Amino acid sequence: MFLDKVDIFIKAGNGGNGIVSFRREKYIPYGGPDGGNGGNGGSVIFVADNNTSTLIDFKYRKHFRAGNGESGGPNNCTGKSGNDLIIKVPCGTIIREKSTGAIISDMFNEGDIVTALYGGKGGRGNACFKTAQRKAPSFCQTGEKVPEIEVTLELKTIADIGLIGFPNVGKSTLLSVITAATPKIANYHFTTLAPNLGVIKLYDESFVIADIPGLIEGASQGAGLGHNFLRHIERVRLLVHIIDISGSENRNPIDDYNIINDELKSYSEVLKNLPQIVVANKCDLVSDQGVFDNFEKATGKKLHRISAITNSGIEDLLIAVYKEAIKLEKPQPLEYEPFALPEKDNESFEIIKEDEETFAVIGGLIDNLVRNVVLSDYQSFNYFQKVLKDRGVIKALYNAGAKNGDTVRIEDIEFELMD
What we know:
This protein is an alpha/beta fold.
């Protein structure tokens, strides 16, 4: 099965918790705090791999999580960091943050690496909170929690040349003739259900050519298979437009040519402006030579006449493709502003009045503060109150209408406001 677009969830590892510990050894009654820090969480890393050509590995597995950091240990031992998660994707895969559509990375070349999410920082152990005034802190910091995000993986085939045209015009047959590729060939529409790649070697140059599944009228709006596979043309430098000049499918070759180009234009202005070589296939079935003249007169395009079945005209076509292809620049990765999660805000807060006697405080300052608080510990709670006062939270509560005795809720912590 070929799969070229899929949504998955990724999450970096949470940081490990710091611990509370005190040095206890014989003859050292006051060894002091020695609680170690928690380990950092693992990161989520994408790697471009030529050994994969589809996103089928992501069809049944949707959640990918890196390892969490371990808690710290006594004797100032730092916890083990979580394992990074390596996710391999085919070359040409674009990774987007789903909610915004912003590009995280274009995995264009073999071996490209991008860290999509970084692991959370480990919490500090009680040894880090020792000061001249606080010689034996009995509280520590919890590890940083990291959110899960949904991303879209979208595969766009990397090829120099794209074969386009209606179904059953002979694209797969031509690919099998000019390259070593072995696509499925049969006399019915949509035999090709996935882009097939081959390599043309001419003189000292080689070019990757892609057989794009047949397009039909309305493809840019989702009809047939076209909407799924038009994306695979976006990276090519040259289009080889195959026409069934014989009309063996009871279609008009001129109409076919115009319909396909209208679909390219509707999908993308870039595709509309790509250079095209127009190829009249199945010439062995044509008895009226005026068909060629009528086509060229109506479209203004020169026809390269071939028969993929009998191999006639193939050599001249390859020479024409070579002359056009060597003029063009190599495919390049997309230009984009890489997406990044917003930096953590550890300063702001907001007061919310829930009812006449209850107020909630939320914000980045609060999220960071509660990691350091152990309510059952006198020193920790004093630290908590001091930060609220120093950062202006208490003053803001009074300004918002809070009175002594009112309830203040900060995440899972509730206390009465007292001046």
